[in-house]
Amino acid sequence: xxxxxxxxxxxxxxxxxxxxxxxxxxxxxxxxxxxxxxxxxxxxxxxxxxxxxxxxxxxxxxxxxxxxxxxxxxxxxxxxxxxxxxxxxxxxxxxxxxxxxxxxxxxxxxxxxxxxxxxxxxxxxxxxxxxxxxxxxxxxxxxxxxxxxxxxxxxxxxxxxxxxxxxxxxxxxxxxxxxxxxxxxxxxxxxxxxxxxxxxxxxxxxxxxxxxxxxxxxxxxxxxxxxxxxxxxxxxxxxxxxxxxxxxxxxxxxxxxxxxxxxxxxxxxxxxxxxxxxxxxxxxxxxxxxxxxxxxxxxxxxx
Length: 303
Known about the structure:
Elements: H1 2-14, E1 16-21, E2 25-26, E3 31-33, E4 46-53, E5 56-64, E6 67-69, E7 81-83, H2 85-88, E8 95-97, E9 106-114, E10 117-125, E11 127-128, E12 135-142, E13 145-155, E14 160-165, E15 170-171, E16 178-181, E17 187-196, E18 201-208, E19 216-222, H3 231-262, H4 269-284
Parallel strand pairs: 1-10, 2-11
Antiparallel strand pairs: 3-8, 4-5, 4-9, 5-6, 7-8, 9-10, 12-13, 13-17, 14-15, 14-18, 16-17, 18-19
Subcellular location: Membrane
Protein name: Ig-like domain-containing protein
Organism: Ornithorhynchus anatinus
């Protein structure tokens, strides 16, 4: 055992290969860390993968005695690492890491011991975890005072969260945004704001994960409380409406009375209309009675 440790130490000190870095890989994805060695394979082939983060070393995966050895594997990597056994026969010691977590970021070292051959490869892994679109909700409402909350989750980096009105003016929050990290170092950020609503307004929560990142924004519309009308004004409106109906009724009544007075006594409207029609007919036809049928008298010679 001490001989193996001594050889690995020499390899780390003198046979280190330059570090390789790749673009950030999103949380939850899989990635493969490349590592290779020359063939043929000796009987004492050993492959070790180590992880370094914040000064801490963790054993990620090991292979020796012709099989994978996981008894010393760090708990954080259980069930998430894999070597290609057919690939090992071709000189491929690449490690596949699944379901990436924020804590997987950092430096990885591939150590290969194959007979008299020693080699180490360093790979820098970056893991990206974008924040979710912020969500705004109303927490409470007391009269004209409304308290709203903005929240977002999913990121790892520092974040800037500010409140703005519909005109883009900055609003003062009750307190600084609260950031909570879970066991996987995923952040959740929350902020509260209290506003006095005298008219319909909109408040917006603006989230910027990094200075270079694009700002994300979510807005919430808040309606003002409709005030009740003054009772005296309401009574005045009722009196005006009732008075209007009374005046309309009186006017209609007098119109009927005037019409009845214009009619001749003892005659119905129908007879008056007939008399007027007859007078108009006589005037137009030279006093000819259109209601009297003309009579024709003819003297026949044989009668």
